[in-house]
Model the fold of this input.
Amino acid sequence: MYELVRGPLAWAAFIIFIAGSLYRIIYMLAGCKKEKIVFPHMSLKHSLASLVHWVIPFNNQYMKQRPAFTIVTFAFHICLVVTPIFLLAHIILWDESWNISWWSMSDTIADYMTIIVIAGCIFFLYRRLTDPVVKNVTDASDYLLLAITALPFITGFIAYHQWFDYKTMLIIHILAGEIMLIAIPFTRLSHMLFFVFTRAYFGSEQGHVKHSKDW
Amino acid sequence: MKPTIAKREPVVDDAMDQTEAKLRPEQIQKVINEVIDKETGGRLWTYVNTCIHCGLCAEACQWYLSNDRDVSYAPVTKIKDTIWVMLKNKGAVDAAFIKRCAEIAYTECNLCRRCGMYCPFGIDIAYMLLVVRRICAKLDMVPLYLQDTVHSHAATMNQMWVKPDEWIDTLQWQEEEGQGYVPSARLPLEKEGAEIMYSVIGPEPKFLAQLLGNITAIMKVAGLDWTMPATAGWDNSNMAMYSGDFEVMARVERLHHETAQRLKVKKIVMGECGHAFRGAEYDGPTWMGWMKPPIPIVHAISFYYDLIKSGRIKIAKKAEGPITVQDPCNVIRNGGLGDKLRYIMNAVCAEFVDVTPNKRHNYCCNEGGGVINC
Amino acid sequence: MPDLGNWDWKSKEKMIADTAEWKARFEDVWEPYVSPDGEKIASIVKIGEGEFNVCVNGETWEEPYEKLWYSRFSPDGRLTVLASKDMEWTMAVDGKAWENSYEYIWDTKFSADGKVIAATVKQDDVYGIAVDEKTWECSKELQSIASYVISPDGKTVAAIAQTVPLGQADLEGFLKGTWSVVVNGKPWQNNFVDLYGLTISNDGKKIAAEYRAAICDYGIVVNGAPWETTAGCTWEPVFHPNNNDVVTAPVRQGGRWFLATNGTFVWDKGFTNILYQTYSPDGERIAATVATSFAKWTVAVDGQPWRTKFGECVLQPYFNPDGTKVAAIAKDRGFWFLVVDGTVLGDGAYYDNIWPPVFSPDGDKVICKVEKHGKYAIAVNGKIWGSKYEALWDPVISPDGTKVLIRGIEDKKYYRRIVPLASM
Done:
């Protein structure tokens, strides 16, 4: 079972993630081309300006207005992306399979970052259950996406601390990671892919076309 | 997802009620799918597939804030109760649903675009609500007062059913009023080759004719070479843009810009109206295939800023008392004229008191977006 | 057309009037107009409080008026001005007012030879068209007139008019149709929601217009009979120059614009926009201003767009007399260019403004009025030729195609000049 999830399934997950992401981005760009006005309205300068103001914490007015949320969301998203990439255990797998490796973080830091991701998921779950606006627009898919996001971290955390049966937990963890990879292009987790584009367009429209700003 | 319960009386609108009785489901489905397939593209698809349902847009909306944070007014709620359902059901919705869509899109959203600026992804929620309006317009599900104004645009090319002779007559009358301030003032009609074509909104000749006398005096004092058309094409406003009747919108804008081309002017200077600026500067030209107006448009704020700054007009007496200003969304958040507006306010007011939030973070006045005519 | 052959094509230069002297004589002098033959220059002048007159070649009309506006020369050289006295309006032609006066009168138009003068009038809140002092007799009390056209021979006048009164906010009544076309006082049988783009055939026998059948449902109607199919949107139709059975208009289908003749697509591809379709003089070819994509404007001839595109706009195309060349005025990055068959003339010369070009009979030269740095000049094939003027009118080519009439104000003096085309 381990061999299956570690081998063919991992291959499949990465291929689907990469190919699926490319497909979705190309599909989106084709749709924008059809719309005629999208590309003529774009400007590199204003796209970058918008991104700079929205990927750096507290670099726009709204983030300053909601400091707690800003801190949580940045901590969550940074840890979500950084932890799996720089986790030593993951790099070893890359090294074993492809003979490539890169800088890794200490397991303690990774542990804390995993907790941050899980805490972030709990925070978002809490918002979904209690904030009337969020609750009103939440359906099963939102809980599912949250679960897909949280599961690799929860299982990874458990596996690392070797609670329960390590081997089983490891298999579940790998499976959870693979599910998440596959889910990214084909669910609203694709906001990870589209963020740059939606920001660039709105930044361009507000800056290049409307001579204003979007932060 | 269940529809959001809006705890308020349903809108009573004779026109919408009559349309609701007439609309057939297959007609609704056809129009929705036509608009979605033929008139939208990458933007709508990406927006819907990117929205993570975080609700952060709520805090941007003055409808939500001023109604004690009533969930039904949150921008994402308005999308949920309109576009999401249309997409999910592939257009199979009933007339009552379309009526509710019209209530939401026309009377509970001003298309002020503040929510787009507060969305972490920059999802242009107002654009999606304009798509909803487009669908409603094609189904004739438009509030009575708004539709009547659109019909006026369509029939007369102005917003207020002003007839051709009434327009010219009013200008000639107001020329005399302007001469009351500056005896040598003139309101030059149809002067080909003038530097500026001055265009206004329908309510000016209809209800606020004195503004035309005022501009006659101002232009004379500033020593500008200007003209106004004696034909249709004088009205720069466009409620058809807001109803979603883009064909009428384009015809109105085309005539406005072609009138400037016909008069061979270098630029169009327009009055204060924010939505008119949006229509004449962006929405109209975009539909026509122009990246920007073929004859540049100068909004009143830029115009007066230049006149005051260059000393072409001097302020003899400032207005007394504390005075504030509401930043109009279409020229400030969506036009970038916030600083120039403040320069003018300080130049004409003895005591200008700014608002918070201001400039592009302003709250919509709640009149815009076709909710109230002007 | 008036008989250009009778004009003075011999006098090399005539100084017709010194407008500087006018400024000294009158309280205010409005922008001048010149007659088509260039022999007369006229301005409305203010002679006192609430007293205006017209100064033609330095002479004022006998009678002053309280208000004057819209001074326009007819093609045969008569000066028409809309004039008001004692709260009533009329048309004054060469100093003589029409016998009738009106609540209001506006929008003066002429037959091609200038013999017929028409204008929209309002009397007792009823609208009509007055042709040579005689107002239409119409069976319906017209509520408004949006626009009108006059046939080249002046015998037919057609107007888009509101034939049915409409109450406030009467949406249902509006959608039943309140507008019709009225031809020489006789309304078409049908009413329409809206009518636009009225046009008349060269022989004056047929009238075409765009009509709106419902929200977002448009079509073309010819002499009251609509085309079989409707479209999402339309722009104004034009008649074939020599065949009044043929009408062509841009129509919008599925978000693209197509050119249609008598309801059938004639160009095989659609465009982002199509404007100002124009027939060649023999009617064999059609040129139109098109946007091949967003913000990419050019001219398409028989459906084939020029390779050169312009970012801002392109105005109406013009054929040369034998229909082999097409000229257009285009705008890109804030400047205007004169373009012929896709090539910018004058080595990429750009101007602050360009007026409609005229071709020489052999099509070799394109002549037009241009503006640069606040001065006006004649441009020949895109390059400035001769003096710079403070004011200038469109050049006219003599019927034999050898001479050009230039009418312009230089140093406040109005000159009428005749220049051999070969020397330009």
Remarks:
- The helical segments of chain C are 19-25, 171-176, 345-348.
- Chain C touches chain B through 53 residues (CB under 8 Å).
- Chain C has a mean pLDDT of 96.
